[in-house]
Amino acid sequence: MRAKFFLIITICITFSFPFFVDVRELSIQQLEERKKADEERKKQREKRGEKKFQKEIILTTDIVFVSKERELPPVLSNLDPILEDEGFYGVKLAIEDNLTTGRFLGHDYKVEFHRILLEENLETEFGKLLQKGKKFFVVDLNEEELLSLMKIPEIDDVIVFNIRAKNDSLRNENCRKNFFHIPPSYSILSDALTQYLVKKKWKKWFLVTGPDKNDRIYSDALKSSAKKFNIKIKEEKIWDFTADLRRTAGKEVPIFTKGANYDVLVVADEDGEFGEYLAYRTWDPRPIAGTQGLKPNSWHRTHEQWGATQMQNRFRRESGRWMTEVDYHAWTAVRAIGETITRTQTNDVEEVQKYLLGEKFGLGAYKGVKVSFRPWNGQLRQPVLLAAPRSMVSVSPQEGYIHPVSELDTLGKDQPESTCKF
Long-range contacts: 15-20, Cβ < 8 Å, 24+? Predict the structure, then answer.
């Protein structure tokens, strides 16, 4: 029997949720050692007892995590785990972090998880949450779903954190003052990648775009970045093959890439339908970047600097898998709420929103600098990690790019370029 929509889970610091996840990266010995270590930590926690508030609770903040059930396409490889719990453990760790300070201040944080089923109407079910007086939302939704939320009359009275959609339209013509965007936009990702390619003097591109809508959106962002940084796109093609590349890539890719004179093959394939099969098969030996190869990310499993190793280890102990970008975005959103309430000593929506968009807000997020929100469109300023599948390569903005306010604003659309009007 399918779970009802209003499955409400209230998390405390010792709460555990049994998800089945992919752990094939670990050996049997490592798994056994982890189980023993986890059991020992559990015994120690039980011995210590539940952590108590040092001060009477004077402020309780309810946070709601909303996700949508989706029809998942088959993966191209058995190496790709299908994750149905993205965001959950990020929120859980952030609640723990918020309570570290909250226990001394008398600030409590509770979270509810709501998963909207395929047959349920998003606007209707979200409206029910608004009627219950919920004010802070972390939402794992795509662009169309976020636009539908904006149609709800009461939506202006709450704060919504987007942790998945990267579309620039949500930060420009469709922006809202109470919508905050944690993921880097497509224009930020493309600028971050382009800065590095310019540094390497790879200024002649072969751009390959997939058939899906988001592929085209990302491709348009790459073209804008190319124009912005004086890059020449020597060749541009649309990938519209329907054959199973696991068997035909060796024949198709060399023909597809033959004849062009370029430094780097840049790919826009958001769903990973073909991009992985381009490497080592192009007519000329060239590096690959974009959605495959060298990829710009908000978070990556190989990231270890600035305390990131601590976060990676905490997350893996809790979840048994690597932290994804959506997990990181969820953690960042909940921590942003906690940091703001700690500083302002209130969870009033207007005061929280004002502080988040103000100059005083800054959050340590394992990126080497404090992250903050752009006051003109609610986009999170943050360094972008450039990584290959198994190694960190660089971090953008690259050295030498300067800005009168923040070097992070050299990525994506700056305020004079923005079409967002609050």
Answer: 15/92, 17/85, 17/88, 17/92, 19/84, 19/85, 19/88, 19/319, 19/320
CA gap 157, 379 in Å, rounded: 19
Helical axes 349-356 vs 325-344, angle rounded to 10°: 110
Side chain identity, residue 208: V
Q: Where are the domains of the chain?
A: 28-184+302-382, 187-297
Whole-structure pTM value: 0.89
Instruction: Please answer whether residues 65 and 8 qualify as being in contact, where contact means their C-beta atoms are separated by less than 8 angstroms.
Output: no
CA–CA separation, 304 and 385 (whole Å): 11
pLDDT in tens, 37-70: 777 777 776 666 667 888 899 999 999 999 999 8
Domains 28-184+302-382 and 187-297 equal at CATH topology level? yes
CA 365 to chain centre: 13
How would DSSP label each residue in 332-401? HHHHHHHHHHHHHS---HHHHHHHHTSTT--EE-SSSSEEEE-TTT-BEE--EEEEETTEEEEEESPTT-
The CATH code for residues 28-184+302-382 is: 3.40.50.2300
Q: Which amino acid is at 228?
A: K
Rounded distance, CA 214 to CA 194, Å?
Answer: 19
Q: How far is CA 163 from CA 145, 166, 209, 421, in A?
A: 13, 9, 24, 22
**In the block, residue with structure tokens 């965001």:** 87
Output the average pLDDT for the chain: 89
Please name which of 267, 270, 271, 268 lies closest in space to residue 279, comparing C-alpha atoms.
267
Among 361, 383, 382, 379, smallest CA distance to 420 is for 379
Task: Give residue 407's Cα distance to chain centre.
Answer: 21
In one-letter notation, the amino acid at residue 347 is: N
Run of H or E including 104:
helix 88-105
Hey, what amino acid is at 96? Answer: E
